[in-house]
Amino acid sequence: MIRSRAEKPNQHKIEIDLNGSDGNAFALMKYAQILGRQIGYSEKRITAIRKVMMMSDYDGLVNVFDNAFGDHVILWR
Questions:
Q1: Which pLDDT belongs to residue 3?
Q2: What letter would DSSP give residue 5?
Q3: Which residues of the chain have pLDDT under 70?
């Protein structure tokens, strides 16, 4: 029986260390673009997420990213 990968248990999440180079605001913005496309978000949705990310300080940006991609990414502080 062929099944979808989405049904596969224990899918690995991407891990991002916010204290490392992947945790800076520009890297998180790029991750939002890449992950959004991989997940299948429309370009409008990705643009909207990125605009909201830019509307606040760093902590706000991280919170928006976590809300949008938290099911797929683990953020470490």
A1: 67
A2: G
A3: 1-3, 5, 7-11
**E strand or H helix that includes residue 76:** strand 73-76
Give the closest residue to 66 by CA, choosing from 42, 21, 35.
35
Q: Is 27 left (phi over 0), alpha (psi -120 to 50) or beta?
A: alpha
pLDDT of residue 10: 62
pTM: 0.84
